[in-house]
Amino acid sequence: MTALAVSFAVSTAIFNMTFNAQALVDAQLTNGADVTVFGTAAIPASAEMDVLSSLPDVIAVQPMQHRFAYVGSDLQDLYGIDPTAIGKVTNLSDTYFSGGSASTLLTQLADRGDGVLVSEETVQDFQLAIGDIINLRLMNVVDHQYHPVPFTFIGVAREFPTAPSDSFLVANAAYIAKVTGSAASEYLLMKAAGDPAVLFAEAKNMLRRVPALQIKDVGSAAKIISSTLTAVDLSGLTTIELGFALAMAVASAGLMLALGVIERRRDFAILAAIGARPDQIATFLWAEGLLVAIGGVSFGAIQGAALAWMLVKLLTGVFDPAPESLSAPLACLSVALALLLASIVVAVFAVQPRRGSNISQYLRQ
Q1: Which residue in 13, 153, 280, 359 is a FRET match for 337, CA 20 to 30 A apart?
Q2: pLDDT-derived band at 27, boundaries 50, 70, 90
Q3: Contact present, 307 and 4 (Cβ < 8 Å)
């Protein structure tokens, strides 16, 4: 029973924390960062970078270009970034990329000035291979015409902050600025020092004079995402489930142990009658409590972790993107473990025989 209770607590805590963490990842992927300022080619957000960098609740600000490029006859979103600095403002998961980790592909992109990361759909449509030269047509700010520009295909991007889920391109902002004649960045990604809502309020107040710029925070993005199950808030349900699991664990470990000992009180009375000291009898009780604690926690933790892993795997298609690993609420589980052990200690102290106990009464019962 203890193992079952621990298993329920562990699986519930790990799955729900992973679920909530992935909901935040999904929201940040949609919004781009904790707070994002969206501009246009005519009114780029990068013009306000110095002003926004001075806000008290901002840790880092990074510009990101959002242009358009023709891949054949298909017009796709093109994102220009600084591969060495983009990680300061947003989390880039390894699941965003294919053929290498996020750090590996970003390093390759930084090393190759004309490199480009291409979405999976485009790679399949054009049968691209690593190292292929891709001629993308980009608009030049001088004549406002699209001109072919060579890029080198270096990897696949499944997802990227603010990018659509189907077709997009990611390249070096410096190279895009060089070939288009404009270094302006349409977006600004901002990382908050604390609550993103506070930074959002500060940025919004600062940019009231530029109504054409849109400002969004990750909290707002989380509320409006409705395309996946990660839009569900599990906090209330988690509290109920963990409360039930905690009560079940304490009852099964402490209460059931105490009741079991009480039922066998006659056996301990016989031991006392033939000369066993109270401390010797207490050794049996502590050993039993230790067996319940170690066995229940060990088997329960293993079973709970396996169950949580299975649930996350079954819902891999629901998460966008899929989680890289399970998230474990160590503080919550530590409290549950402490209460479980405390219940066993209290149970043993409550039922262990004491000197002067009426042995004959227990024998008659």
Answers
A1: 280
A2: confident
A3: no
Q: CA 149, 152, 154, 156 torsion: positive or negative?
A: positive
Q: Please name which of 273, 221, 276, 295 lies closest in space to residue 36, comparing C-alpha atoms.
A: 221
pLDDT at 363: 61
pLDDT at 317: 67
pLDDT of residue 227: 46
Residue 339 CA to residue 287 CA, distance in Å, equals 19
Quote the tokens at residue 43: 């009114």
Question: Residue 263's closest CA among 239, 293, 288, 294?
Answer: 288
The token pair at 350 is 């409550």
Burial of 330 (0-12, 13-18, 19+ CB in 10 A): exposed
| For residues 248-272, average pLDDT | 79
**pLDDT (average), residues 241-246:** 83
SS3 234: coil
Q: What percent of the chain has pLDDT over 70?
A: 91
Residue 137 clears pLDDT 80, i.e. is over it: yes
Q: Is 275 helix (H, G, I), strand (E, B) or coil?
A: coil
**222 contact partners, CB below 8 Å, separation of at least 6:** 23, 24, 26, 27, 231
CA dist list (Å): 133 to 116, 118, 130, 139: 10, 12, 9, 19
Q: How many residues does the chain have?
A: 365
For residues 272 and 359, is the Cβ–Cβ distance under 8 A? yes
Q: For the whole model, what pTM was predicted?
A: 0.70
Minimal CA–CA distance to 69: which of 19, 140, 123, 133? 140
For residue 14, is pLDDT > 50?
A: yes
Q: Can you tell me the distance from the alpha carbon of 226 to that of 111, in angstroms, rounded to the nearest whole number?
A: 38
- Do 1 and 303 contact (CB within 8 A), yes or no? no
